[in-house]
Write a structure and sequence with these properties.
- The protein has about 325 residues and is of the alpha/beta class.
- It folds into 2 domains: about 70 residues; about 240 residues, Purple Acid Phosphatase, chain A, domain 2 (4-Layer Sandwich), CATH 3.60.21.10.
- Strands 1, 2, 3, 4, 5, 6 and 13 form a 7-stranded mixed β-sheet that branches.
- Helix 7 links the parallel strand 4 and strand 5.
- The longest helix has 29 residues.
- The structure holds fe (ii) ion.
- The site of fe (ii) ion (FE2) has 6 residues, from loops.
- Fe (ii) ion binds next to loops.
Length: about 325
């Protein structure tokens, strides 16, 4: 059995959510309380009054704690951003531009209400992608109304195709295995789920979908089998740990796309994420790796609480050379 301390920590926050949301009004006052107590503390220090000063200090600590809670449960989880890592040129020379929207870790079932899914998918549709890529972990458990929520994804127009891979949560690690259900709904929505297989997108590049690592279904040998040598390669996979050194696995690609890390979910304002559910420490961003460029997204889910990570939609252009078409 795989022990997942990260998800246990986040799951432990779940019972707190209704309580925190009931306290939302009070928490929203916390920035003002912090300023008031700071002012009082300075005032009492200036007046050299010890007891009122100590009380103001205690009030400041409490209001700061409330402010941090407010930020983690209300500010960061609602701060949906569009992240553009810049144009990605594959191969040499300029040519056809393909607009991609890439999202992962949607975690339907962890939202406060259905409005978030609508907001998310409408924001993705406004980017007018040619190609929609989905990097796994669509659920948190077996949420009611999954068909409707996945249906919103199907509504995002993407004339060059919509492709997905599955993540550990979809396979029930942890939780319930809803992979078959997801795949059936996605298929009805025109989203093709890739299991260690590749497809040609237009006539410009090869998209390789690698299955989930934690479910022990990732097989790069199968996924890369007979991939044409003359075409650029994009790889879509859930977990960046498929890049861990392995004598059987030396494959290179022009671009690897991953999710799974949530950017660390809860992290300090500076420095590294204290915990990642991966052995490779690729927390979030665009990386230049020996085996190609890699984008790791911190995911689109609100997922109860976030701190110095925000839900994001990744959007960028792939520039495919004319001579490779
Ligand atoms: Fe995951």
């Amino acid at each position: 059995m795989i022990v997942i301390p990260h998800y246990n920590l986040i799951s432990a926050l779940k019972p707190l959510v209704p309580l925190v949301h009931k306290m939302g009004f009070l928490l929203a006052l916390s920035p003002y309380l912090t300023l008031i107590f700071l002012f009082l503390l300075m005032f009492f220090i200036f007046k050299k009054r010890v007891l009122p000063g100590l009380l103001a200090f205690a009030g400041l600590i409490l209001s700061l704690f409330l402010f941090l809670t407010y930020s983690a449960f209300f500010i960061f989880p609602n701060d949906l951003k569009i992240w553009n890592p810049g144009d990605i040129r594959v191969g040499k020379g300029g040519g056809q531009e393909i607009k991609v929207v890439f999202m992962a870790d949607l975690h339907f079932g962890s939202y406060r209400d259905g409005k978030w899914v609508k907001r998310l998918t409408e924001a993705a549709a406004r980017e007018k992608p040619d190609l929609l890529l989905l990097g796994g972990d669509y659920v948190y458990g077996d949420p009611p109304g999954l068909d409707k929520q996945l249906g919103y994804l199907g509504n995002i127009p993407a004339p060059m195709g919509k492709f997905a891979v599955l993540g550990n949560h979809d396979y029930g690690i942890p939780g319930v295995d809803v992979s078959k259900k997801i795949e059936k709904i996605m298929s009805g929505e025109g989203i093709k789920v890739l299991h260690n297989q590749w497809v040609t997108v237009g006539d410009g590049f090869v998209l390789i979908g690698v299955d989930d690592l934690w479910r022990r279904r990732a097989d790069l040998n199968m996924a890369f089998k007979d991939v044409p040598e003359n075409l650029p390669r994009l790889v879509l996979a859930h977990n960046p740990d498929i890049l861990l050194p392995d004598p059987q696995n030396k494959y290179r690609a022009d671009l690897w796309l991953f999710g799974h890390t949530h950017g660390g979910q809860l992290r300090p304002p500076w420095g590294n994420a204290p915990y990642l559910p991966t052995r490779l420490k690729l927390d979030r961003g665009l990386f230049e790796l020996p085996r190609g460029k890699a984008i790791v997204t911190q995911g689109t889910a609100q997922f109860y609480a976030r701190f110095f990570t925000n839900p994001e939609i990744v959007t960028f252009k792939i520039i495919v050379p004319e001579n490779k078409r």
